[in-house]
Amino acid sequence: ADLDAETAALIARRQALLGPAYRLFYEKPLHLVRGEGAWLYDAAGEAYLDAYNNVTSVGHCHPKVVAAIAAQAGVLATHTRYLHAGVLDYAERLLATLPDEIGQMMFTCTGSEANDLAVRIARAFTGGTGIIVTETAYHGVTQAVAEFSPSLGPAVDLGVHVRTVPAPDSYREADVAGAFTASVEAAIADLTRHGIRPALFICDGIFASDGVFDGPAGFLQGAVAAIRAAGGLYIADEVQSGFGRTGDAMWGFQRHGVTPDIVTMGKPMGNGYPVAGVALRPEVVAEFGRKARYFNTFGGNAVAVAAATAVLDVIEGEGLVANARDVGAHLRDGLRGLAARHPCIGDVRGAGLFIGVEIVSDRAAKTPDPARTAAIVNGLRAERVLISACAKGANVLKIRPPLIFTREQADLLVARLDRVLGGL
Ligand code: PMP
C-alpha cells in the first residue's frame, strides 16, 4: 500500500522495538490519537466510525467511566489482600445479573487469565483434564489457554487433551442443535477412548471467531447436557458476548436457556481499563479453594472495580442492552437490504450489536470468499468505517459497534458498505 512517510516510519520503529509477533490491522495501518463515543480520530484529525471495538463498549472515553477511574486513582489503588467494600459491592451487583446458581466471583486482569483460572478450577473439581472447544475458537494467550485456541493456527499445538468440534454453522447446517450435540458427544467419546477424563466444554456465547453463530436459540442445551453427563463442566466464555452486547440479555448464554458452571468475562467490563474475572457456582470452586491460594496483584484492585462499577451504571442508566437490541435489528435490516442487491452477501446473522455477514463467491454453493472479504474490510477503512473479519474461511464480516450506536450511525455504515460493494 502507498503509505505516507510518517506511517511508514512508525511501522519501521514498531517492528524494530516490539519485534515480529505483533500484527497490525489493515493494508494501510491506522494511527489513532483520540476517541469519543462511536468515533475514533487519526493523527490528521479524520473521523472513523468505530463498528468493531468491543472493549470500549459504552463508547470511547465515556465521561462517567473516565471520572470514576480518575477519582478512585486519586484516593486508593490497592489489592484484594486488604478489605475493601468496593469489590464486594461490585460482585453483588454483577452476580445479580447472572442466574441464581452463580453465587461467587473472582477477579483477574484479562480474559485469558479468567479462562486459565476457570480451567484450573474445573480440573480440580472434576479430576479430569479433557477440554472440548469449537474448531476456530479463541480463548486467550497463556500457554494453557492457547492450547485450546485453535484459531491461533498451526503455530500453536493443541494440547493432547483437547478435542475440537465444528462450529454450529446455521448457514450450512439444517439441524444445528442435533449436529452440534452429536459432535460434542463424539468428542467426549474420543477423549474417553484415549483414557482422558473430560473436564470441560467451553464456548463463547456467540461463537465470535467461528463466524458469529447466534442461533437457533437453545441449540446449546444438548451439548451442555452431554458434557455434564460425562462428569465435565460447561464454561461460558462471555469475554466477547457479555455485558449486553447480544441485545436480548446481559449474557450471551442466556439465549440458549442454559446455566453455566463457570462464566468468564473481560474486555468491555472496564471499558478500556483492564478488569476481568470468573463467576461461578460456589460448589465448583470449593475444592480448589481448599487446596490453592489465589492472589492476582491487579485483579479486583480498587481502580479496576471503580471502572467496572461505572460501566454497569452506564449500561443500566443509558438502557444500552435495549439499544443494542433495537439498533442491532435495524442494522441487520439494512444489511439484508444490501443482500438483495449484492449477491456476494450470503447470510446476515447475529444478535444485538454482534453481527456476522457471510461473503461468498457462489450463493448456491455457499463458497467462502476470503479475498473479497479482505477487500471489503480494507475498502470500508478507506471509507472511514472500522470492522473486521472472522471464521474458519476468513469470509465473515465481523461487525461489533459500541452499544451506544445510533440508527443514524447504522445507516451510515450500510450506505458506506453499499458504496464499497458497488466498487469491487
Ligand atoms: N475469550 C474470548 C472469546 C476472546 O475474544 C478473547 C480476546 N479476544 C479472550 C478470551 C482473551 O481475552 P484477553 O485478550 O483479555 O486476554
From TrEMBL:
Species of origin: Paenirhodobacter hankyongi
Family: Belongs to the class-III pyridoxal-phosphate-dependent aminotransferase family.
Residue ranges of coiled coil: none
Segments traversing the membrane: none
Keyword DNA-binding among record annotations: no
Protein's UniProt name: Aminotransferase class III-fold pyridoxal phosphate-dependent enzyme
Annotated Pfam families: Aminotran_3 (PF00202)
Keyword annotations of the record: Aminotransferase, Pyridoxal phosphate, Transferase
Cofactor requirements of the protein: pyridoxal 5'-phosphate
GO MF annotations in UniProt: pyridoxal phosphate binding; transaminase activity
